[in-house]
Amino acid sequence: MKAMKVLAVAGSLRRASINAAFCRALVQLGPGRVIASEHPGRLPLFNPDLEAEPPAAVGDWRAAVQAADVLLLASPEYAHGISGVMKNALDWLVSFEGFVDKPVALVNTSPRAHHAYESLQEVLRTMNARLLRQSSISLPLLGGCVTETAMVADASVRAAMQGLLRTLDAELTGMADVGPSVQW
Ligand SMILES: Cc1cc2nc3c(=O)[nH]c(=O)nc-3n(C[C@H](O)[C@H](O)[C@H](O)COP(=O)(O)O)c2cc1C
User: Fold this and answer.
1) 39 φψ region: left (φ > 0), alpha (ψ -120 to 50), beta (else)
2) Could you give the percent of the chain with pLDDT greater than 70?
3) Beta pairing class for 34-36 and 6-10
4) Ligand 1 atom closest to Cα of 146?
C-alpha cells in the first residue's frame, strides 16, 4: 500500500500547543511522509483584495497543500469556535482550485470540545474537501500527554497515532479505487 504524504496542520500558535505537539509527534512516527506545517503562523489575515497578487506566504501555503496527498487538521476550540489561525488558513484555500476534493482528516485533541470539530466539518464540506471519516479521530490528550515527547513515549497514544497513519493510507487507497468523493 502506498504511504501517503501527510501535511499536519495545527490551528494554534501557542509555544506549548498540544495540537502543534501532536503534529510534530506524528512527524516522528512517520518520518519522510508527514510534514508539520508552519504555514498558518506566517499567513496574513485573509483579504480577498490580496488575491490579485497573493503574498508569498500564501503561495507557499497553497503549494504545500497541493503537494500533500492529505491534510490532517488539529484545531483547538476557542469560545466554542474554530481557532482564528485555522479558519484564516482555510479561508486562503476557499478560492484555490488545488484544494477542491483534497482529502482532509480531523484530529480533536480535547475530550470536552466538540463545537469547533463540528464547525470545521461544516466549513470543509462547504469548501468541497473530501472529509475522511475513518481517519478523523478524537484523541484525549488535553490533561494528559501534552508534549511531543510524552505522546511518542506513551504506548497507547503512540499506537493510536500509528493506527491513524495506517488508516489514512487505507482510506485514501480505497478512495483511489472507488474514484468519486466520499463526503459526510
Ligand atoms: C481563549 C480560549 C478559549 C477557549 N475556549 C474553549 C472552549 O470553548 N471549549 C473548550 O473545550 N476549550 C476551550 N479552550 C481550551 C483550549 O481549547 C485548550 O487549551 C487547547 O489545548 C488549546 O489548544 P493548543 O494546546 O493547541 O494551544 C479555550 C482556550 C482559550 C485560550
Assistant:
1) alpha
2) 95
3) parallel
4) 25
HEC letters along 131-184: ECCCCCEECCCCCCCCCHHHHHHCHHHHHHHHHHHHHHHHHHHHHHHHCCCCCC
Q: Which pLDDT score is estimated for 178?
A: 44
Question: For ligand 1, is residue 75 a contact (CB within 6 Å)?
Answer: no
**Could you say which DSSP state residue 45 is in?**
P
Question: In this structure, what C-alpha cell is assigned to residue 181?
Answer: 468523493
Indicate the domain borders of the chain. 6-178
Q: Which CATH superfamily is domain 6-178 in?
A: Flavodoxin domain (3.40.50.360)
> DSSP 3-state assignment of 6?
strand
Name the residue with the closest Cα to ligand 1, atom 5: 78
> Rounded mean pLDDT of 156-168?
96
* 110 CB near ligand 1 (under 6 Å): yes
